[in-house]
Design brief:
The chain is an alpha/beta fold and about 300 residues long. The protein contains 12 helices and 9 strands. It has a 7-stranded mixed sheet, with helices on both faces. A two-stranded antiparallel sheet has the order 1-2. The longest helix has 18 residues. The chain is elongated and about 70 Å long.
Length: about 300
């Protein structure tokens, strides 16, 4: 914290902040898949929440802290207890940022991860190129396993010409995605559907989809029991369980996407650690695709694969 901001809280407020920062620093177990969280960033978000302002960790970092009353400090302490016990901060604040968008978050859907922006950014790049080349109809995008709608909404926001469809098997996830769509004012360009994978998209979409993306479940069922309690104890299992080998949904997408993709359209999928090479091999052998691209994380692991539909 900048000294001037800390001093603005007064000596009592400064002491209260520092005491709770020490508590979080000693007790908080931070998962590597949420790099935005530190004891300091978590405390800022919880401090503002106790003061009546619900913000994501990113937004809290950009917002001046307010003085808290004794009652509000009590609320803050209760929030800290819940966070230390494993409740994700995005569920406590009800907010999470994804690709620059401030989104509502709830246990009805997976918390959007920073790693998923790897696929999102390349997908947005592909979509912008398609929009620039389009001479008649706007680009059509489908996001399946859309959860809170984070990827669908990010693509709609990034490319105003696009018409985006999101789908999820979970009614409650779609309800959250609908709330996010309304909050961002994107109802005219984002349509939401409930159903199993590509089931909501029939003949009307055949060979008309420019971009089909997914952040699907990709954890093997056996590994679910070994995942941190913060994840499996709070986030929906449906959003993680990818079947016995973790690739059930990925393989279905590879099989089921071609009838919907227009020639030159793209399929883009996030993959789990270690799954990339096998998915690339499958796509390169599949006659429906003529080009495969990958996106790697900072450690060099493939975290997203994209395949272009053959003419």
């Amino acid at each position: 914290m900048h000294d001037t901001e800390l001093q603005a809280l007064g000596s009592a407020g400064q002491a209260a902040f520092e005491q709770r920062l020490a508590r979080l620093s000693n007790a908080l177990d931070i998962l590597p898949d949420k790099p935005e969280e530190t004891p300091y960033s978590a405390l800022r978000a919880l401090w503002l929440l106790a003061g009546g302002t619900a913000l994501s960790i990113h937004a809290a970092a950009e917002t001046p802290l307010c003085a808290l009353s004794a009652a509000q400090l009590g609320e803050l302490d209760a929030l800290i207890v819940r966070r230390v016990a494993g409740e994700p901060i995005a569920y406590l604040t009800g907010r999470q940022r994804f690709m620059g968008l401030e989104l509502l978050a709830s246990p009805e859907a997976l918390i959007p991860r920073a790693e998923s922006e790897l696929l999102g950014k390349l997908a947005a790049q592909k979509l912008r190129a398609m929009a620039a080349d389009a001479t008649d109809a706007p680009p059509v995008v489908i996001d399946v396993c859309c959860g809170s709608g984070n990827l669908a909404l990010a693509l709609a926001h990034a490319v105003p010409q696009a018409q985006v469809h999101g789908a999820d098997i979970s009614d409650t996830a779609i309800a959250l995605a609908r709330d996010n769509t309304h909050q961002l004012g994107l109802e005219s360009r984002v349509t939401l559907h409930t159903g199993d994978l590509l089931a909501p998209f029939g003949a009307a979409f055949a060979r008309k989809v420019d971009l089909l993306v997914s952040l699907p479940p990709y954890i093997s069922t056996a590994k679910m029991d070994t995942m941190p309690h913060e994840i499996v104890g709070h986030e929906p299992h449906l959003a993680f369980d990818g079947g016995p080998f973790g690739v059930r949904i990925l393989m279905r997408l590879i099989r089921e996407a071609p009838p919907l993709l227009r020639p030159g359209g793209w399929l883009g999928m996030e993959v789990g650690l270690g799954q990339g090479p096998a998915m690339v091999q499958l796509l390169e052998k599949h006659p429906a695709y003529d080009r495969v691209e990958t996106v790697c994380d900072a450690g060099g692991a493939v975290r997203a694969v994209l395949a272009r539909a053959a003419a």
